[in-house]
Amino acid sequence: MASRFGSRPAGSDGSDFQHRECVVEPYNQSPLFKRRLRTTFTLHIAIWLLVAVKVLPEVLFKFGLISRAIIRRYGLPPNELWEYAWLFGSILPVIFGHFAFPKNRIYLIRFSLIGTIVFGFVPIMMGCFLRAFELMDFYYTKNSRHDFFRFPFVVILYIFFSIAFQIHCFELYFSYKLMSMWSRLSKKNA
Predict the structure, then answer these.
(1) How many independent structural domains does the chain possess?
(2) Which sequence ranges are marked TM in the entry (predicted)?
């Protein structure tokens, strides 16, 4: 059949239904932000394991399971309060965040958001302020109080602070976006 517009009549190729085929933005963005938040949680767990490896020998020594010679061999500084607070507190927001994913639970992602601020940012900022004088001392004298494999430990610590700060910022951003999306969807469904 010959026609001026080709072999098909205009509008019968399915293009007139394009407006019905788009997915609503919150449903489209939620899996993307969930994936990104899972990635930041994985990075958080990776740096959490590094801090756990640093803190573990002294904890085992306090329980009498290892000797002081093992701790002295690596020349690490003694553990500080912010390390314990970050280690034992910052894993809770990650757990709450993972439990919030399957059914889009707003209250769990809110706990994760608040926990990241309280147990993530506060100990990291406390550690930054406690080690600031040691960093300035190293900057001016180039002598470090503690070396880790002939590298100044305070520099390693501030590298950790910057990485942890960025990971926590991304966790907050993605958690907030998910919480706002899920709350809009729950208001529409109610």
Answers:
(1) 1
(2) 41-61, 81-101, 113-133, 153-174
